[in-house]
From TrEMBL:
Protein name: Dityrosine transporter A Q resistance
Organism of provenance: Cyberlindnera jadinii (strain ATCC 18201 / CBS 1600 / BCRC 20928 / JCM 3617 / NBRC 0987 / NRRL Y-1542) (Torula yeast)
Keywords of the record: Membrane, Transmembrane, Transmembrane helix, Transport
InterPro entries: MFS (IPR011701), MFS_dom (IPR020846), MFS_trans_sf (IPR036259)
Location of the Major facilitator superfamily (MFS) profile domain: 44-473
One Pfam family per UniProt: MFS_1
Protein backbone atom coordinates (compact mmCIF):
# COMPACT_ATOMS: atom_id res chain seq x y z
CA UNK A 1 0.00 0.00 0.00
CA UNK A 2 1.40 3.35 -0.97
CA UNK A 3 1.58 6.25 1.40
CA UNK A 4 -1.04 8.06 -0.62
CA UNK A 5 -3.57 5.26 -0.21
CA UNK A 6 -6.26 5.80 2.42
CA UNK A 7 -7.76 3.17 4.65
CA UNK A 8 -11.51 2.60 4.66
CA UNK A 9 -11.64 3.93 8.23
CA UNK A 10 -9.96 7.12 7.19
CA UNK A 11 -12.28 7.53 4.24
CA UNK A 12 -15.29 6.95 6.48
CA UNK A 13 -14.15 9.60 8.97
CA UNK A 14 -13.58 12.07 6.21
CA UNK A 15 -17.07 11.48 4.90
CA UNK A 16 -18.70 11.76 8.32
CA UNK A 17 -16.73 14.89 9.28
CA UNK A 18 -16.36 16.94 6.10
CA UNK A 19 -14.01 19.89 6.11
CA UNK A 20 -15.60 23.31 6.49
CA UNK A 21 -14.10 26.25 4.76
CA UNK A 22 -13.38 29.06 7.24
CA UNK A 23 -14.91 31.52 4.79
CA UNK A 24 -18.25 29.65 5.09
CA UNK A 25 -18.44 30.21 8.86
CA UNK A 26 -20.55 33.30 9.51
CA UNK A 27 -20.04 35.31 12.73
CA UNK A 28 -22.81 35.02 15.29
CA UNK A 29 -24.77 38.26 15.08
CA UNK A 30 -24.75 40.34 18.26
CA UNK A 31 -28.25 40.70 19.76
CA UNK A 32 -29.86 44.10 19.36
CA UNK A 33 -29.50 46.33 22.41
CA UNK A 34 -33.28 46.29 22.71
CA UNK A 35 -35.89 44.16 20.95
CA UNK A 36 -38.65 46.68 21.55
CA UNK A 37 -39.69 48.52 18.40
CA UNK A 38 -38.77 52.17 18.07
CA UNK A 39 -42.40 53.18 18.59
CA UNK A 40 -42.75 51.00 21.67
CA UNK A 41 -39.42 52.28 23.06
CA UNK A 42 -40.36 55.95 22.68
CA UNK A 43 -43.84 55.27 24.05
CA UNK A 44 -42.20 53.85 27.19
CA UNK A 45 -39.96 56.94 27.42
CA UNK A 46 -43.06 59.17 27.15
CA UNK A 47 -44.74 57.21 29.97
CA UNK A 48 -41.78 57.50 32.35
CA UNK A 49 -41.36 61.18 31.41
CA UNK A 50 -44.97 61.88 32.37
CA UNK A 51 -44.43 59.91 35.57
CA UNK A 52 -41.29 61.95 36.24
CA UNK A 53 -43.43 65.07 35.96
CA UNK A 54 -45.31 64.21 39.17
CA UNK A 55 -42.53 64.89 41.70
CA UNK A 56 -41.42 68.31 40.41
CA UNK A 57 -45.07 69.25 39.78
CA UNK A 58 -45.88 68.39 43.40
CA UNK A 59 -43.01 70.53 44.64
CA UNK A 60 -43.61 73.51 42.35
CA UNK A 61 -47.41 73.67 42.46
CA UNK A 62 -46.97 74.13 46.21
CA UNK A 63 -44.42 76.97 46.32
CA UNK A 64 -46.63 79.84 45.01
CA UNK A 65 -49.32 79.15 47.65
CA UNK A 66 -46.90 79.31 50.60
CA UNK A 67 -48.17 82.78 51.68
CA UNK A 68 -51.77 81.47 51.56
CA UNK A 69 -50.87 78.33 53.53
CA UNK A 70 -49.04 80.44 56.10
CA UNK A 71 -52.33 82.20 56.87
CA UNK A 72 -54.51 79.07 56.71
CA UNK A 73 -52.26 77.10 59.07
CA UNK A 74 -51.56 80.16 61.24
CA UNK A 75 -47.79 79.68 61.34
CA UNK A 76 -44.56 81.54 60.59
CA UNK A 77 -42.81 81.95 57.23
CA UNK A 78 -39.91 79.79 58.45
CA UNK A 79 -42.28 77.00 59.52
CA UNK A 80 -44.22 76.96 56.25
CA UNK A 81 -40.92 77.04 54.29
CA UNK A 82 -39.86 74.02 56.34
CA UNK A 83 -42.68 72.00 54.71
CA UNK A 84 -40.78 72.59 51.46
CA UNK A 85 -37.50 71.55 53.09
CA UNK A 86 -38.89 68.33 54.54
CA UNK A 87 -40.38 67.44 51.16
CA UNK A 88 -37.01 67.99 49.46
CA UNK A 89 -35.15 66.10 52.18
CA UNK A 90 -37.34 63.02 51.72
CA UNK A 91 -37.06 63.39 47.94
CA UNK A 92 -33.31 63.12 48.53
CA UNK A 93 -33.26 60.07 50.82
CA UNK A 94 -36.13 57.86 49.62
CA UNK A 95 -34.84 57.28 46.05
CA UNK A 96 -31.81 55.51 47.49
CA UNK A 97 -34.15 52.79 48.75
CA UNK A 98 -36.39 52.75 45.70
CA UNK A 99 -33.61 52.72 43.11
CA UNK A 100 -31.52 49.91 44.58
CA UNK A 101 -34.56 47.64 44.53
CA UNK A 102 -35.41 48.82 41.02
CA UNK A 103 -31.93 47.70 39.88
CA UNK A 104 -32.52 44.34 41.56
CA UNK A 105 -36.24 43.45 41.46
CA UNK A 106 -37.74 45.43 38.58
CA UNK A 107 -38.62 48.93 37.40
CA UNK A 108 -42.37 48.52 37.07
CA UNK A 109 -42.82 47.13 40.58
CA UNK A 110 -41.27 50.28 42.02
CA UNK A 111 -43.38 52.61 39.88
CA UNK A 112 -46.60 50.96 41.00
CA UNK A 113 -45.68 50.70 44.69
CA UNK A 114 -44.48 54.29 45.07
CA UNK A 115 -47.40 55.78 43.15
CA UNK A 116 -49.88 54.13 45.52
CA UNK A 117 -48.30 56.03 48.42
CA UNK A 118 -48.37 59.25 46.40
CA UNK A 119 -52.08 58.91 45.60
CA UNK A 120 -53.00 58.07 49.20
CA UNK A 121 -51.06 61.04 50.63
CA UNK A 122 -52.76 63.50 48.26
CA UNK A 123 -56.23 62.15 49.04
CA UNK A 124 -55.58 62.67 52.76
CA UNK A 125 -54.10 66.15 52.23
CA UNK A 126 -57.25 67.12 50.37
CA UNK A 127 -59.52 65.76 53.10
CA UNK A 128 -58.04 66.15 56.60
CA UNK A 129 -58.54 69.32 58.72
CA UNK A 130 -55.89 72.06 58.47
CA UNK A 131 -53.24 71.05 60.98
CA UNK A 132 -49.54 71.91 60.64
CA UNK A 133 -48.43 68.57 62.13
CA UNK A 134 -50.59 66.60 59.70
CA UNK A 135 -49.26 68.74 56.84
CA UNK A 136 -45.68 67.81 57.71
CA UNK A 137 -46.44 64.09 58.03
CA UNK A 138 -48.42 63.87 54.81
CA UNK A 139 -45.83 65.90 52.90
CA UNK A 140 -43.31 63.25 53.97
CA UNK A 141 -45.53 60.43 52.65
CA UNK A 142 -46.20 62.45 49.50
CA UNK A 143 -42.46 62.85 48.92
CA UNK A 144 -41.78 59.14 49.52
CA UNK A 145 -44.33 58.29 46.84
CA UNK A 146 -43.11 60.87 44.33
CA UNK A 147 -39.40 60.29 44.89
CA UNK A 148 -38.74 57.09 42.97
CA UNK A 149 -39.40 58.28 39.46
CA UNK A 150 -36.32 60.35 38.61
CA UNK A 151 -33.79 57.63 39.38
CA UNK A 152 -35.94 54.67 38.27
CA UNK A 153 -36.88 56.55 35.10
CA UNK A 154 -33.20 57.02 34.25
CA UNK A 155 -32.78 53.29 34.79
CA UNK A 156 -35.58 52.59 32.30
CA UNK A 157 -33.83 54.83 29.75
CA UNK A 158 -30.57 52.92 30.28
CA UNK A 159 -32.47 49.65 29.69
CA UNK A 160 -33.92 50.83 26.38
CA UNK A 161 -31.36 53.20 24.83
CA UNK A 162 -27.68 52.44 24.05
CA UNK A 163 -25.04 54.95 25.26
CA UNK A 164 -24.55 56.51 21.82
CA UNK A 165 -28.13 57.89 21.88
CA UNK A 166 -28.67 58.08 25.63
CA UNK A 167 -28.02 61.77 26.37
CA UNK A 168 -30.66 62.80 23.83
CA UNK A 169 -33.15 60.29 25.28
CA UNK A 170 -32.43 61.50 28.82
CA UNK A 171 -32.92 65.11 27.71
CA UNK A 172 -36.38 64.13 26.43
CA UNK A 173 -37.09 62.19 29.62
CA UNK A 174 -36.09 65.21 31.69
CA UNK A 175 -38.69 67.32 29.92
CA UNK A 176 -41.26 65.64 32.18
CA UNK A 177 -39.57 66.70 35.43
CA UNK A 178 -38.71 70.08 33.95
CA UNK A 179 -42.30 70.87 33.01
CA UNK A 180 -42.97 70.88 36.77
CA UNK A 181 -41.40 74.33 37.29
CA UNK A 182 -43.44 75.66 34.33
CA UNK A 183 -46.87 74.10 34.82
CA UNK A 184 -46.73 73.74 38.62
CA UNK A 185 -46.94 77.44 39.42
CA UNK A 186 -49.49 78.00 36.65
CA UNK A 187 -51.70 75.15 37.87
CA UNK A 188 -51.50 76.60 41.38
CA UNK A 189 -54.14 79.11 40.26
CA UNK A 190 -56.71 76.45 41.15
CA UNK A 191 -55.90 77.38 44.76
CA UNK A 192 -57.03 80.98 44.25
CA UNK A 193 -59.93 82.08 46.38
CA UNK A 194 -58.74 79.93 49.27
CA UNK A 195 -59.32 76.57 47.50
CA UNK A 196 -55.89 75.18 48.39
CA UNK A 197 -57.24 71.64 48.88
CA UNK A 198 -57.98 71.38 45.17
CA UNK A 199 -54.25 71.25 44.53
CA UNK A 200 -53.95 67.93 46.36
CA UNK A 201 -57.18 66.61 44.83
CA UNK A 202 -55.80 67.40 41.38
CA UNK A 203 -52.54 65.59 42.18
CA UNK A 204 -54.45 62.51 43.41
CA UNK A 205 -56.49 62.35 40.18
CA UNK A 206 -53.42 62.82 37.97
CA UNK A 207 -51.45 60.23 39.93
CA UNK A 208 -54.28 57.71 39.52
CA UNK A 209 -54.38 58.18 35.75
CA UNK A 210 -50.61 57.72 35.49
CA UNK A 211 -50.85 54.58 37.66
CA UNK A 212 -53.34 52.99 35.26
CA UNK A 213 -51.21 53.83 32.22
CA UNK A 214 -48.15 52.20 33.82
CA UNK A 215 -50.14 49.15 34.93
CA UNK A 216 -51.57 48.38 31.49
CA UNK A 217 -49.07 49.84 28.99
CA UNK A 218 -45.53 49.91 30.42
CA UNK A 219 -43.54 46.64 30.08
CA UNK A 220 -40.82 45.60 32.50
CA UNK A 221 -37.41 46.62 31.10
CA UNK A 222 -34.84 45.57 33.75
CA UNK A 223 -32.28 43.74 31.63
CA UNK A 224 -31.21 41.15 34.23
CA UNK A 225 -34.87 39.99 34.32
CA UNK A 226 -36.08 40.37 30.72
CA UNK A 227 -32.87 40.75 28.69
CA UNK A 228 -33.39 43.00 25.70
CA UNK A 229 -37.16 42.52 25.93
CA UNK A 230 -37.56 39.97 23.13
CA UNK A 231 -39.52 37.59 25.40
CA UNK A 232 -41.72 40.09 27.22
CA UNK A 233 -45.35 38.98 26.64
CA UNK A 234 -47.40 41.78 25.09
CA UNK A 235 -50.64 41.99 23.16
CA UNK A 236 -50.07 44.92 20.84
CA UNK A 237 -49.75 47.99 23.05
CA UNK A 238 -51.35 46.20 26.00
CA UNK A 239 -49.23 44.60 28.75
CA UNK A 240 -50.68 42.00 31.08
CA UNK A 241 -50.87 43.72 34.48
CA UNK A 242 -48.84 42.26 37.33
CA UNK A 243 -46.92 43.68 40.27
CA UNK A 244 -43.82 41.46 40.29
CA UNK A 245 -41.83 40.44 37.21
CA UNK A 246 -40.04 37.10 37.41
CA UNK A 247 -36.93 36.45 35.35
CA UNK A 248 -37.87 35.25 31.87
CA UNK A 249 -34.38 34.77 30.41
CA UNK A 250 -32.13 31.76 30.93
CA UNK A 251 -29.26 31.61 33.42
CA UNK A 252 -26.80 31.72 30.53
CA UNK A 253 -28.44 34.79 29.00
CA UNK A 254 -28.59 36.52 32.38
CA UNK A 255 -24.78 36.47 32.53
CA UNK A 256 -24.75 39.01 29.68
CA UNK A 257 -26.72 41.51 31.77
CA UNK A 258 -24.95 42.56 34.99
CA UNK A 259 -27.07 42.26 38.12
CA UNK A 260 -26.15 44.28 41.20
CA UNK A 261 -26.09 42.70 44.67
CA UNK A 262 -29.15 42.78 46.88
CA UNK A 263 -29.71 46.22 48.44
CA UNK A 264 -27.86 46.75 51.72
CA UNK A 265 -26.27 49.54 53.73
CA UNK A 266 -22.87 48.06 52.89
CA UNK A 267 -23.72 48.25 49.21
CA UNK A 268 -24.66 51.93 49.49
CA UNK A 269 -21.46 52.71 51.31
CA UNK A 270 -19.49 50.90 48.61
CA UNK A 271 -21.11 52.96 45.85
CA UNK A 272 -20.61 56.21 47.79
CA UNK A 273 -16.88 55.42 47.90
CA UNK A 274 -16.88 55.22 44.10
CA UNK A 275 -15.27 58.59 43.31
CA UNK A 276 -16.92 59.38 39.93
CA UNK A 277 -20.43 58.94 41.34
CA UNK A 278 -19.61 60.82 44.55
CA UNK A 279 -17.95 63.80 42.86
CA UNK A 280 -20.58 64.04 40.10
CA UNK A 281 -23.38 63.99 42.65
CA UNK A 282 -21.71 66.55 44.93
CA UNK A 283 -21.20 68.92 42.01
CA UNK A 284 -24.86 68.65 40.99
CA UNK A 285 -25.93 69.26 44.60
CA UNK A 286 -24.01 72.54 44.87
CA UNK A 287 -25.40 73.71 41.53
CA UNK A 288 -28.97 72.77 42.45
CA UNK A 289 -28.71 74.58 45.81
CA UNK A 290 -28.13 77.84 43.95
CA UNK A 291 -30.94 77.26 41.50
CA UNK A 292 -33.41 76.28 44.22
CA UNK A 293 -32.52 79.34 46.30
CA UNK A 294 -33.41 81.39 43.25
CA UNK A 295 -36.63 79.43 42.63
CA UNK A 296 -37.90 79.69 46.23
CA UNK A 297 -37.33 83.46 46.43
CA UNK A 298 -38.57 84.23 42.91
CA UNK A 299 -42.33 84.49 43.58
CA UNK A 300 -42.00 86.43 46.85
CA UNK A 301 -39.60 88.98 45.37
CA UNK A 302 -41.85 89.51 42.34
CA UNK A 303 -44.74 90.13 44.73
CA UNK A 304 -42.95 92.30 47.31
CA UNK A 305 -40.51 94.24 45.09
CA UNK A 306 -42.32 94.41 41.75
CA UNK A 307 -46.01 94.27 42.75
CA UNK A 308 -46.89 91.07 40.85
CA UNK A 309 -50.29 89.53 41.58
CA UNK A 310 -50.68 85.82 42.44
CA UNK A 311 -51.66 85.04 38.84
CA UNK A 312 -48.71 87.03 37.46
CA UNK A 313 -46.33 85.24 39.85
CA UNK A 314 -47.60 81.88 38.62
CA UNK A 315 -47.09 82.73 34.95
CA UNK A 316 -43.66 84.21 35.70
CA UNK A 317 -42.38 80.68 36.39
CA UNK A 318 -42.68 80.00 32.65
CA UNK A 319 -39.30 81.77 32.33
CA UNK A 320 -37.18 79.41 34.48
CA UNK A 321 -39.24 76.47 33.24
CA UNK A 322 -38.49 77.18 29.58
CA UNK A 323 -34.83 77.64 30.46
CA UNK A 324 -34.73 74.14 31.99
CA UNK A 325 -36.22 72.52 28.89
CA UNK A 326 -34.02 74.36 26.38
CA UNK A 327 -30.86 73.76 28.40
CA UNK A 328 -31.67 70.07 28.67
CA UNK A 329 -32.47 69.55 24.98
CA UNK A 330 -29.47 71.49 23.70
CA UNK A 331 -27.09 69.95 26.24
CA UNK A 332 -28.32 66.43 25.51
CA UNK A 333 -27.93 66.72 21.75
CA UNK A 334 -24.48 68.29 22.03
CA UNK A 335 -23.39 65.59 24.48
CA UNK A 336 -24.34 62.79 22.06
CA UNK A 337 -22.75 64.71 19.17
CA UNK A 338 -19.52 65.09 21.15
CA UNK A 339 -19.51 61.35 21.92
CA UNK A 340 -20.16 60.42 18.29
CA UNK A 341 -17.41 62.70 16.99
CA UNK A 342 -14.87 61.41 19.52
CA UNK A 343 -15.77 57.77 18.79
CA UNK A 344 -15.33 58.44 15.06
CA UNK A 345 -11.98 60.24 15.31
CA UNK A 346 -10.37 58.39 18.21
CA UNK A 347 -12.43 55.26 19.01
CA UNK A 348 -9.66 53.74 21.11
CA UNK A 349 -9.32 56.87 23.27
CA UNK A 350 -12.99 57.59 23.98
CA UNK A 351 -14.20 57.42 27.58
CA UNK A 352 -17.53 58.55 29.10
CA UNK A 353 -15.63 61.37 30.83
CA UNK A 354 -15.26 63.15 27.48
CA UNK A 355 -18.86 64.36 27.94
CA UNK A 356 -17.72 66.54 30.85
CA UNK A 357 -16.09 69.19 28.69
CA UNK A 358 -19.59 70.54 28.03
CA UNK A 359 -20.14 71.05 31.75
CA UNK A 360 -17.59 73.86 31.85
CA UNK A 361 -19.87 75.91 29.61
CA UNK A 362 -22.96 75.11 31.69
CA UNK A 363 -21.22 76.02 34.95
CA UNK A 364 -20.13 79.39 33.53
CA UNK A 365 -23.68 80.19 32.38
CA UNK A 366 -25.13 79.17 35.76
CA UNK A 367 -22.64 81.36 37.60
CA UNK A 368 -23.59 84.38 35.50
CA UNK A 369 -27.28 83.72 36.13
CA UNK A 370 -26.93 83.53 39.92
CA UNK A 371 -24.73 86.63 40.12
CA UNK A 372 -27.03 88.67 37.90
CA UNK A 373 -30.22 87.54 39.68
CA UNK A 374 -28.87 88.39 43.13
CA UNK A 375 -27.65 91.87 42.27
CA UNK A 376 -30.69 92.74 40.15
CA UNK A 377 -32.94 91.98 43.13
CA UNK A 378 -30.56 93.76 45.51
CA UNK A 379 -30.46 96.96 43.40
CA UNK A 380 -34.14 96.75 42.27
CA UNK A 381 -33.15 96.66 38.59
CA UNK A 382 -35.95 96.44 36.01
CA UNK A 383 -37.82 93.14 36.20
CA UNK A 384 -36.83 92.18 32.63
CA UNK A 385 -33.22 91.86 33.81
CA UNK A 386 -34.41 89.59 36.64
CA UNK A 387 -36.09 87.32 34.09
CA UNK A 388 -32.98 87.23 31.87
CA UNK A 389 -30.68 86.13 34.67
CA UNK A 390 -33.24 83.67 36.04
CA UNK A 391 -33.31 82.10 32.58
CA UNK A 392 -29.52 81.83 32.49
CA UNK A 393 -29.40 80.24 35.94
CA UNK A 394 -31.87 77.52 34.96
CA UNK A 395 -30.31 76.99 31.52
CA UNK A 396 -26.81 76.44 32.89
CA UNK A 397 -27.98 74.19 35.71
CA UNK A 398 -29.93 71.78 33.50
CA UNK A 399 -27.16 71.80 30.85
CA UNK A 400 -24.86 70.34 33.52
CA UNK A 401 -27.61 68.09 34.89
CA UNK A 402 -28.32 66.22 31.63
CA UNK A 403 -24.62 65.46 31.10
CA UNK A 404 -24.24 64.30 34.70
CA UNK A 405 -27.30 62.03 34.53
CA UNK A 406 -26.10 60.45 31.28
CA UNK A 407 -22.66 59.83 32.77
CA UNK A 408 -24.14 58.22 35.89
CA UNK A 409 -25.93 55.67 33.68
CA UNK A 410 -22.66 54.84 31.88
CA UNK A 411 -19.96 54.91 34.56
CA UNK A 412 -20.88 51.59 36.21
CA UNK A 413 -22.67 48.60 34.71
CA UNK A 414 -25.85 47.15 36.16
CA UNK A 415 -26.82 49.91 38.59
CA UNK A 416 -27.92 52.94 36.58
CA UNK A 417 -30.92 53.70 38.81
CA UNK A 418 -28.84 53.49 41.99
CA UNK A 419 -26.17 55.85 40.64
CA UNK A 420 -28.79 58.38 39.55
CA UNK A 421 -30.51 58.04 42.94
CA UNK A 422 -27.28 59.00 44.70
CA UNK A 423 -27.05 62.05 42.45
CA UNK A 424 -30.66 62.82 43.27
CA UNK A 425 -29.85 62.50 47.00
CA UNK A 426 -27.18 65.18 46.86
CA UNK A 427 -29.30 67.53 44.73
CA UNK A 428 -32.39 67.35 46.89
CA UNK A 429 -30.44 67.44 50.16
CA UNK A 430 -28.74 70.65 49.03
CA UNK A 431 -32.10 72.03 47.84
CA UNK A 432 -33.64 71.26 51.25
CA UNK A 433 -30.87 73.15 53.06
CA UNK A 434 -31.06 76.02 50.57
CA UNK A 435 -34.84 76.44 50.84
CA UNK A 436 -34.83 76.58 54.65
CA UNK A 437 -31.83 78.94 54.98
CA UNK A 438 -32.25 81.24 52.00
CA UNK A 439 -34.63 83.71 53.72
CA UNK A 440 -32.33 84.21 56.70
CA UNK A 441 -29.20 84.42 54.54
CA UNK A 442 -30.66 87.05 52.23
CA UNK A 443 -31.94 89.06 55.24
CA UNK A 444 -28.52 89.08 56.91
CA UNK A 445 -26.24 89.27 53.86
CA UNK A 446 -28.45 90.97 51.29
CA UNK A 447 -29.50 89.38 48.00
CA UNK A 448 -26.42 90.47 46.10
CA UNK A 449 -23.80 88.99 48.42
CA UNK A 450 -25.86 85.88 49.23
CA UNK A 451 -26.18 84.89 45.58
CA UNK A 452 -22.56 85.88 44.94
CA UNK A 453 -21.65 83.20 47.48
CA UNK A 454 -23.91 80.66 45.78
CA UNK A 455 -22.39 81.52 42.40
CA UNK A 456 -18.85 81.10 43.71
CA UNK A 457 -19.70 77.51 44.69
CA UNK A 458 -19.61 76.77 40.96
CA UNK A 459 -15.83 77.24 41.11
CA UNK A 460 -15.76 73.97 43.06
CA UNK A 461 -17.75 72.50 40.16
CA UNK A 462 -15.06 73.57 37.67
CA UNK A 463 -12.41 71.81 39.78
CA UNK A 464 -14.52 68.63 40.05
CA UNK A 465 -15.10 68.49 36.29
CA UNK A 466 -11.39 68.86 35.50
CA UNK A 467 -10.51 66.22 38.11
CA UNK A 468 -13.03 63.73 36.67
CA UNK A 469 -11.76 64.30 33.13
CA UNK A 470 -8.20 63.55 34.32
CA UNK A 471 -8.75 60.74 36.85
CA UNK A 472 -12.20 59.32 36.00
CA UNK A 473 -11.08 56.64 33.48
CA UNK A 474 -8.58 55.13 35.95
CA UNK A 475 -11.11 55.20 38.78
CA UNK A 476 -13.70 53.42 36.63
CA UNK A 477 -11.19 50.72 35.63
CA UNK A 478 -10.29 50.09 39.27
CA UNK A 479 -13.98 49.87 40.19
CA UNK A 480 -14.83 47.34 37.47
CA UNK A 481 -11.81 45.20 38.37
CA UNK A 482 -12.87 45.25 42.01
CA UNK A 483 -16.44 44.21 41.07
CA UNK A 484 -15.13 41.33 38.95
CA UNK A 485 -12.92 40.20 41.82
CA UNK A 486 -15.86 40.18 44.24
CA UNK A 487 -18.06 38.32 41.74
CA UNK A 488 -15.45 35.62 41.19
Amino acid sequence: MSLNDKSPETSLNEKSEPKIDEQDVLPVPKPAYTAFTSRRKWFAIIIVSITGFLGPLTGNIYIPILPQLQQVFNTSETAINATVSVFMAIMAIAPLLWASWADFGGRKTLYLTSLLLFILANILLAAVPANIGALFVLRIVQAIGASSVMSVGAGTIADLVPPKERARAISYFMMGPQLGPILGPILSVIASGGHWRWIFGFLAILGSLVYLVILFFLPETLRCLVGNGSRVPMNGWFVQPHLIQRRIITEEEACNYPKPPKPSLKGYWSILKYKPVLLCSFNSGLLFAGFYGMSVTFARRLHDDYGFSHLEQSFAYVCPGVSLITGSLIGGRLSDHLRKRMKRKHPERYTPEHRFSLQLVGLAISMCGLLGYGWCIDKHVHVVAVFVFTFLGGFGMTWVFVVTTTYLTECSSGQAATNVAIGNFFRNACAAVSSVLISELTDKMGFGWCFTGLALLDIIGFAIVLLLMAKGPAWRLQWEEKKRGVAS
